[in-house]
Amino acid sequence: MKKLCQYVIFPILAILSLFLISDISKAADDTNIGFTVDSILPSSQLDKSKTYFYVQTEPSKEQTLEVRIKSTKKEKTIVKIMVENASTSSEGNINYGKPDKGAENKTLTNPITSMIKPESDEVEVQNFEEKVVKLKLTPPAEHYDGVKMGALIFEKVANEKSKATIKNKYNYKLGVITSENGDEFTDGDTLELLSVKPELLRGQKVVRAFIQNPQPKVIQNLTMRSTITDKKTNKVIKKNNVTNYSFAPNSTLPFIFDWGISNLPSGTYTLSMKINNNLKTWNLKKDFTISGKQAQQINDDSPYRITTPLWIKIVTIILYILTITNIILIFTRRKKWNKEMKKSKKRKHKNKRKGGR
Fold first, then answer.
1. C or N terminus of the chain, fewer CB within 10 Å?
2. Please, what are the domains in the chain?
3. CA–CA gap between residue 241 and residue 235 (Å, rounded)
4. What pLDDT digit, counting tens, does each position of 76-117 carry?
5. Helix (H) or strand (E) holding 80
6. pLDDT digit string (tens) for 270-292?
7. pTM of the model
8. How far apart are CA 88 and CA 218, in angstroms?
């Protein structure tokens, strides 16, 4: 047993430790962004209880939005000012920035980015000072229904020293909603299933369903139950049920079915979706096809596959060798033991015969 531990078990443990032990390092998290921002609400603000801009507009009538930027440290901080439209992320959140590729929405006209322009793209603050930055809001010449939604982004500009080391971007977002009449804008009632298609998305094998909110209103608090069914066999091959999803006005949700490490199968399928909130229920359905060529291309190009790590292969081989060795040892010992038993029986038999004489 000592030899077994010395020559077999201890080496195995050593090999395992090489594969399983990893170094853990922590990087310092710089949470001091260097400034704060606050909205200065205009007289056109529709709801004074909100800290974001919710302003009333008239066609072509310009107005100025003001934001107070305050330094929170002695060192100089450069702040970049940007304007972004509201979009809907694949996780069902209202984001501010460019939509996912393929999720652009043609129903969005005269967006926030075309209406608001900062007087300066950057501002410097230091030594705890305050500065007021101005942004010009110019509504379209024609009337519009519902709301336009977006955000003002105030992003810290990294200095030359930190550019090489800092990967995170620190920023503040101030929401902006414009409306001509101030009517309710969270009661959107239209959803459309535009298309369903297989894709290789950031290396993942997925099927994406593009669901559109064509109205200038928000749709929120959605529960979505979705199944993909094989059209030939009626067998459900994939489900995705989610809750608390929202849509930005005039936006498209790229809803994802992730195949993980499994291969994407070819065939003709039906996507069925039941979507509901406290206002309405939508039943959406669309057939789609994954060709053999599409499936093979996506499966071959994806890095997400069933692969066995090298250390598992090594340990498996070692355990296999040990198992075979143990079986041989047991078989050999048993054979030897059987021989000893036969010899012992013969001796006893001879002794009996001698005793009988």
1. C
2. 35-159+167-179 (2.60.40.2310), 192-301 (2.60.40.10)
3. 17
4. 999 999 999 999 999 999 999 999 888 999 999 999 999 999
5. strand 77-88
6. 999 999 999 999 999 999 999 99
7. 0.76
8. 10
